[in-house]
Amino acid sequence: MLPQQLSDDAIVLVTETCDLQLMAEGTDFKLESSQWSAFAAVVLRYQAMRHTYEAQIANWKVIGPGQYRAEIPMYAEVGDALRDQLFSELCAAFGEGITLEVKAKMGGCLEKHFAGFGVSFQTLDIRADPAAKPSEIQVTRTVNYWNSAEANDRLASRSEIHFPILEDPTGDSWSALLAKVGVANAEDGPG
After folding, report:
1. pLDDT at res. 187
2. Which DSSP state fits 127?
3. By C-alpha distance, which of 79, 90, 53 is closest to 146?
């Protein structure tokens, strides 16, 4: 039997599903396989909306050849609306009980995953050397955000490195941000 190749969309969905399951690790939160996939699809859609909005409001600077910085200001009002819409869609898909359980058991992780839903200052350092392969584009996101989902209601900091071409082969999530620095191709996603 020959190995099967997943489509780019399926790869992104499976990756996000695994990320969400890892976020739920250590809690007793459980979903069925089809529910995890539906949850991941909703999260992916809202991450793409978030990135598109952030690309529009970011202050962009060229640091050097192939190096860019985007400073994303707080957007608490829009972020609150995004969070509310996300949970409304989850409620429509799963019902109020599961949605309340998601908020209670995964709320803090989702706040981190969505960089505080706009209650944050973000810096994106993009390294996109023109001589490098598209898969080598690297984005370092540093976020300082107010984490109100956790009991201690405190300022949190998070830094993460992304390889947009590998993580987002369809270009749904990262293309708006990468287009701002001229490293996105409208036909086949970033790169």
Report:
1. 34
2. E
3. 79
- Exposed, middle or buried: residue 19 (CB in 10 Å: 0-12, 13-18, 19+)? middle
pLDDT one-digit tens code per residue, 107-130: 888 988 888 888 888 999 999 877
Q: Does 27 fall in a domain? A: yes
Angle between helices 8-23 and 33-57 (to 10 degrees): 100
Domain assignment of residue 80, given as a range: 8-182
| 174 three-state secondary structure | coil
pTM score: 0.81
Residue 2 in any domain: the answer is: no
Q: Which residues of 160-181 are buried (b: 16+ CB within 10 A; e: fewer)?
A: eebebbeebbbbbbbbbbbbbb
62 within some domain: yes
Flag whether 127 is in a domain: yes
Residue 178, pLDDT above cutoff 50: yes
Q: At what angle do helices 76-94 and 96-113 cross, to 10 degrees?
A: 140
Domain count, the chain: 1
